[in-house]
């Protein structure tokens, strides 16, 4: 069975192939929340942390901001984190 293109965990494992599915998902959410504008737009589109799939609009928004996983030059393992901010 083919996995959903918009599956949150699947996308997370593409961004973080060295991580387990659970850890990749956690890391993706940290990145999404670090991008405050993106997080605000996703939540405006009713995205929630327990959601298993992105809607097509949510997915496109993530890809537009973060880039396609295989084409990105960013090293998300070193994503900036502000310890003074609650995530």
Shape: globular
Question: Percentage of helical residues?
Answer: 40-55%
Distance between the termini: 35 Å
Runs in which pLDDT lies below 50 for 5 or more consecutive residues are 72-83
Q: Would you count the extended β strands for me?
A: 0
Instruction: Output the radius of gyration.
Output: 12 Å
Pfam family, one: DUF4248
Protein name: DUF4248 domain-containing protein
Organism: Paraprevotella clara YIT 11840
Could you explain how this protein is built, in words?
- It holds the Pfam family DUF4248.
- InterPro entries: DUF4248.
- This is DUF4248 domain-containing protein.
- About 14% of the residues have low confidence.
- The protein has one domain.
- The chain has 87 residues and is mainly alpha-helical.
- The chain has 4 helices and no strands.
- 17% of the residues are buried.
List the helices and strands and how they pair.
Blueprint: H1 8-15, H2 21-34, H3 36-44, H4 56-66
At a glance:
By secondary structure, the chain is an all-alpha fold. The chain has 4 helices and no strands.
Structural key phrases:
87 residues; mainly alpha; 4 helices; 0% strand; globular
